[in-house]
Specification:
It holds the Pfam family Lactonase. By secondary structure, this protein is mainly β. It is 6% helix and 48% strand. The protein has one helix and 29 strands. It has one helix at 2-22, and strands at residues 27-34, 42-49, 55-62, 70-72, 78-83, 92-99, 104-112, 118-123, 129-134, 139-144, 156-159, 175-180, 186-191, 196-202, 210-211, 217-219, 226-231, 237-242, 247-252, 259-265, 277-282, 288-293, 299-305, 312-319, 325-330, 336-341, 346-352, 359-367, 371-378. The strands form seven sheets. Strands 12, 13, 14, 15 and 16 form a five-stranded antiparallel beta sheet that branches. Strand 22 and strand 23 (299-305) form a beta hairpin. It is globular, with a radius of gyration of 21 Å. The two termini are 41 Å apart.
Length: 380
């Protein structure tokens, strides 16, 4: 009798595990932000299949000014975008309703970004605020999120000041990204113009949710121009890519007490071309880091991550197959990497070798005007 009960319990456990495995989404919605100064009309939605890397067009929302960066709310019902407008006009942020099963996306409202040239947007898990990086004016803005998903007027704006050593690129502050720490106790944002990585405490219930700790910033090498950030899946390490230096900084993350572990170049030995490092992401299993370099390189650089100390070891560099690999994304299954080449109007799909981290180009490709941001969200 005991053997029979054990067998039944074992069978139940196996079935439960199989159900959990089958519950993992096999299809996702791929949302594509673009610049609308060319052939693009706005934000596009494609269906993505994680077993094959195949894509299929679903929907789009037109008439949106330069939705160059987007983010998706945790409940999967709302999407937010910047409207990246230059120095001569004020920028804004837009809220959209989203139906993942159909890929349907519709504009809800817009709000001023309280700055110019907003280039990055993120939203907290509780859907209380969105955070905007205004590149041109060098300001970070906080906008509240209403219960219906719409955006309210900005409740806080942090204006950076200063300049860097590169007179043509660092004549003033240029805020480039705004990323919440995994526990959402801190918001980190980069300033390309002043060569600083800034960190602020975040408390969603306060009228002004951001406040500076001590210290409130970290310096990088003058002229490197910090751009984008990525946390390791376990939250222990923070990785920063610098646009003008083509260098990745590795930090032992501990809020304002974080310590730099190393700085490693993503450039090939003897490289003399233009540098335009752009985006950085880590595989879902935490084993590999990927970063893109635009300029004259137009490539994706792969590093292995040491699980004991977070340090990086070069693996390979791979052509992005186009010009201006501004942004890329790794699908949640970890099987594929998609890179958006802004200047050549295309998105290429690579299969990831989960043992080596190396990339293999597939036959999947999306032709779309000036793609600049890729985001995945469950379709099921």
């Amino acid at each position: 009798m005991k053997k029979l009960l054990f067998a039944i319990a074992l069978l139940w456990s196996v079935n439960l595990l199989a159900q959990k495995k089958d519950a993992t989404p096999k299809t996702y919605d791929l949302l594509i932000g673009t610049y609308t100064t060319g052939e693009s009309k706005g934000i596009y939605v494609y269906r993505f299949y994680t077993e094959t890397g195949r894509t299929a067009y679903l929907n789009e929302v037109d008439g949106v000014d330069n939705p160059s960066y987007i983010c998706v709310a945790k409940n999967n019902r709302f999407v937010y975008s910047v409207n990246e407008i230059g120095a001569d006009r004020k920028g804004s942020a837009s809220a959209y309703s989203f139906e993942p099963k159909l890929g349907k996306i519709e504009l809800i409202n817009k709000q001023p970004s309280t700055g110019t040239g907003p280039c990055y947007i993120s939203v907290d898990k509780g859907q209380k605020h969105v955070f905007l990086a205004n590149y041109q004016s060098g300001a970070l803005s906080v906008l509240p999120v209403n219960k219906d998903g719409s955006l309210g007027a900005a409740v806080q704006t942090i204006q950076d000041s200063g300049h860097g050593v590169n007179k043509s690129r660092q004549e003033g502050p240029h805020v480039h990204t705004a990323v919440l720490s995994p526990d959402e106790k801190y918001l980190l944002y980069t300033d390309l113009g002043t060569d600083k990585l800034n960190i602020y405490r975040y408390k969603s219930g306060q009228d002004k949710p951001l406040s500076p700790p001590e210290p409130s910033s970290f310096d990088v090498v003058a002229g490197h121009g910090p751009r984008h950030l990525a946390f390791s899946p376990n939250g222990k390490y923070l990785y920063l890519v610098t646009e003008m230096g083509g260098v990745i900084y590795v930090y032992d993350y501990d809020g304002p007490k974080s310590k730099q572990l190393e700085a490693i170049s993503m450039l090939a030995d003897g490289y003399k071309g233009a540098v335009g490092a752009a985006d950085i992401h880590i595989s879902p299993d935490g084993k590999f880091l990927y970063a893109t370099n635009r300029g004259d390189a137009n490539e994706i650089v792969v590093f292995a991550i040491n699980p004991d100390n977070g340090r990086l070891t070069f693996v390979e560099r791979k052509s992005s197959m186009g010009k201006g690999p501004r942004n890329f994304v790794i699908d949640p299954s970890g099987n594929f990497l998609l890179v958006a080449n802004q200047m050549s109007n295309d998105i290429y799909v690579y299969r990831i070798n989960k043992q080596t981290g190396k990339l293999t180009l597939t036959t999947s490709k999306i032709s779309i005007g000036n793609p600049s941001c890729l985001k995945f969200t469950p379709a099921e």
